[in-house]
Design brief:
2 strands; 5% strand; mainly alpha
């Protein structure tokens, strides 16, 4: 019986993904306002909110951009 390459590491409970790759993926990556507006992740209404509220020269993580959208959507309407 032959073993597949990497099966020993998986059997020992080790991840097949290197730790450096996992660490890089977990870090928040900042994007420009323009990059966020070009993303297919956001609906047009969300993009309108980002257009109005984000600074042109600022850098934002996806989490920060989503927080801006959420805060705007939950605001009190007078």
């Amino acid at each position: 019986m032959t073993k597949r390459k990497g099966s020993d590491a998986e059997a020992a409970g080790e991840s097949a993904v290197p730790a450096a790759v996992e660490a890089a993926a977990s870090e928040a990556v900042p994007y420009s306002k323009e990059q966020l507006l070009q993303s297919s992740q956001y609906a047009q209404l969300d993009k309108d909110v980002l257009t109005a509220l984000l600074e042109d020269e600022g850098l934002y993580t996806k989490e920060e951009a989503q927080a801006v959208i959420d805060q705007f959507m939950k605001r009190a309407v007078l």
